Automatic annotation (TrEMBL):
Domain BAAT/Acyl-CoA thioester hydrolase C-terminal: 205-423
One term of GO molecular function: fatty acyl-CoA hydrolase activity
GO BP of this protein: acyl-CoA metabolic process; fatty acid metabolic process
Active site: S234, D348, H383
Superkingdom to which the source organism belongs: Bacteria
Membrane-spanning ranges: none
Name listed for the protein in its UniProt record: Thioesterase
Organism: Anaerocolumna chitinilytica
InterPro entries: AB_hydrolase_fold, Acyl-CoA_thioEstase_long-chain, BAAT_C
Pfam family, one: BAAT_C
Length: 427
């Protein structure tokens, strides 16, 4: 058994932290000493990468070479969590029953400080999405599949509906919903495909799921029905922009790396469906169809390993498409009275979210509604702009860099929380 040298210390403040919270990590040792700090966890749930890599059995790690200063100190921050990566991923079959999906409220990260081959200090830190002051409830039916989070005191409060991206499931949405619940909101993480009770594929998804979520929230005694917001990222960003035009009860909308156009549905995880992504009152919403020619361009781009192949595909079909359906595929947010926060990066490699929100903002401005719309475009951050201090294992694949992604996710989340807090004062 290795001996722990007690003169070394790993001080973490606060001792227990929230997932979106900054921390101060202080390493104490001898002046000018070189050490190695290892972070490791096996119970972290991956909200940014491969959805199949679940919390159990996947090992995340970060190894940092440290040089102490002349006082024998080195201070680190929460970016050490962002740069963690998977060293042993356990790919699981996705659970289809919402009742069996874990809430993943917290994880434990072991800090080990080493000198050579000897561990000289250790600490175990807990990171929390939401604590025990938040109660939860499952809503399981063919009309609404969701998980609800709210404070246990049941004071009247604004509510936020949260939807994920092209996975459609509950896990990533609930992580965001949990963090927002800790900020004083009642939150509803909504599943719209990929599980029991909802479609298998991202194809003609009924917008009634969102309508039913609004109705359900409005009946809760602790929810202020006049203050309902919605958050969606990626494909969910497209959904929430569309939802704002259909349901006037939605007052505040955060669309994170969205499309402002309705695109074709996806089946089998990668094939276009030939139909719209969304439907309402049993009718398909107008959409931009992906032509065979544009798909051929995509395949060529992928063969050439062009990291911007998908971005170029969506640019082409959106602004150079001659489909007769095209003019009606744009989501006309200028027609509704909601307030919007639009978030994107200029290096988004999934689709040109920055161009989508630039155009949407300009149209709002042309309609004298720019006061109801704020856009944030971050340089070099890529497609993952969700919660701060979360590992982004495929950051470069999504068009960004860790260096740019860390401040961008921190700032965009701060802006998101401040934006939703305006609901408390909206009369």
């Amino acid at each position: 058994m290795m001996n722990i040298v007690k003169k070394y210390q790993i001080k973490i403040t606060p001792e227990i932290s929230f997932m979106d919270e900054e921390v101060r990590i202080e390493i104490v040792g001898n002046p000018e000493e070189s050490l190695q700090l290892q972070l490791i966890t096996t119970d972290y749930y991956n909200i940014n990468g491969d959805l199949r890599i679940m919390d159990e059995g996947s090992q995340w790690e970060n190894v940092i070479e440290i040089k102490l200063d002349s006082d024998g100190l080195k201070t680190l921050d929460a970016s050490v969590f962002t740069t963690m990566h998977i060293v042993n991923g356990n790919k699981s079959k996705l659970e289809q029953d919402l009742a069996r999906v874990k809430e993943n409220r917290k994880c434990h990260i072991a800090f080990k400080l080493s000198k050579g081959n000897t561990i000289v200090a250790q600490n175990l830190h807990e990171r929390v999405f939401c604590d025990d002051t938040i109660v939860s409830e499952n809503i399981i039916s063919d009309r609404l599949l969701a998980r609800y989070f709210t404070g246990s005191n049941y004071d009247k409060r604004p509510a936020v509906i949260v939807v994920s991206g092209s996975d459609g499931r509950i896990e990533k949405a609930q992580a965001i919903a949990q963090c927002l619940a800790m900020k004083g909101f009642s939150t509803l993480a909504l599943c719209y495909f990929g599980m029991k009770h909802v479609p298998d594929n991202l194809d003609r998804i009924p917008m009634e799921y969102l309508e039913n979520a609004i109705v359900w929230l409005s009946k809760r005694q602790e929810v202020d029905a006049d203050r309902i917001g919605i958050y969606g990222r990626s494909k969910g960003g497209e959904m929430v922009l569309l939802g704002a035009t259909l349901f006037p009860q939605i007052k505040y909308v955060v669309a994170n790396t969205p499309s402002s156009y309705i695109h074709e549905g996806i089946i089998g995880g990668s094939r276009t469906s030939g139909h719209s992504s969304w439907s309402f009152k049993e009718k398909e919403m107008h959409f931009i169809k992906v032509s065979k020619g544009s798909l051929f361009r995509l395949v060529i781009g992928m063969i050439k390993k062009n990291p911007r192949a998908f971005r170029e595909l969506y640019k082409f079909v959106t602004w150079k498409n001659t489909n007769a359906n095209f003019p009606n595929a744009r989501i006309k947010i200028e027609k509704c009275n909601a307030s919007f926060l639009l978030i994107a990066s200029n290096t988004d490699s999934i689709w040109p979210s920055d161009m989508y929100i630039e155009e949407a903002y300009q149209i709002m401005k042309d309609n004298k509604k720019e006061k109801n719309c704020k856009k944030l475009i971050y340089a070099g951050a890529g497609h993952m702009l969700t919660l701060p201090y979360q590992p982004i294992p495929n950051c470069e694949e999504y068009g960004g860099s860790i260096e740019k992604g860390i401040p961008a996710t921190t700032d965009s989340w701060r802006e998101t929380v401040q934006f939703f807090k305006q609901m408390q004062y909206d009369k």
